[in-house]
């Protein structure tokens, strides 16, 4: 047991320092979108989406309709807490534990990617009700 704990610590230490700041930045982008959605500020929420997402949903109104209909736990929730994250080669995967407005638990997996201008944008969000399998 001591050896495996040591290996886990060693693997955590081998993660580049930049990854930690990338994860912090990614959480800031996700939090900005989450707060914009809470205020029904479609323009700010849409601004956090990567160009590929904006191309799929070419207006703020279409984007917000998609969020309201397909991502109700993200749109309206009781709690929204960051879980584990991974950063590699400009791509960040961030888990978020959500309790929706009805008290049901969800797990969201956000992906973000560094854009040519150096900013991070959300490239996707997958939702899974806690207790469901893929």
Lay out the secondary structure.
Blueprint: H1 2-13, H2 17-38, H3 42-47, H4 51-56, H5 60-70, H6 72-75, E1 77-88, E2 91-100, E3 105-114, E4 120-129
Antiparallel strand pairs: 1-2, 2-3, 3-4
What does this structure look like?
The chain has 134 residues and is α+β, with helices and mostly antiparallel strands. It has helices spanning 2-13, 17-38, 42-47, 51-56, 60-70, 72-75, and strands at 77-88, 91-100, 105-114, 120-129. It has a four-stranded antiparallel sheet. The protein is globular and about 40 Å long. The model is unreliable at 1-18 (pLDDT under 50).
Question: How would you sum up this structure in a few lines?
Answer:
The chain is α+β, with helices and mostly antiparallel strands and 134 residues long. The protein has a single domain (18-129), classed as Nuclear Transport Factor 2, Chain: A, CATH 3.10.450. It has helices at residues 2-13, 17-38, 42-47, 51-56, 60-70, 72-75; strands spanning 77-88, 91-100, 105-114, 120-129.
């Amino acid at each position: 047991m001591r050896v495996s704990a040591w290996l886990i610590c060693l693997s955590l230490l081998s993660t580049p320092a930049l990854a930690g700041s990338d994860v912090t930045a990614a959480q800031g982008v996700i939090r900005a979108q989450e707060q914009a959605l809470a205020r029904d500020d479609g323009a700010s929420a849409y601004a956090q989406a990567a160009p590929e997402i904006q191309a799929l949903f070419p207006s703020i109104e279409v984007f917000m309709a998609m969020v309201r209909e397909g991502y109700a736990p993200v749109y309206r929730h009781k709690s929204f807490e960051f879980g584990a994250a991974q950063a590699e080669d400009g791509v960040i995967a961030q888990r978020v534990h959500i309790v929706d407005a009805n008290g049901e638990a969800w797990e969201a997996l956000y992906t973000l990617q560094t854009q040519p201008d150096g900013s991070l944008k959300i490239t996707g969000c997958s939702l899974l009700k806690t207790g469901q399998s893929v």
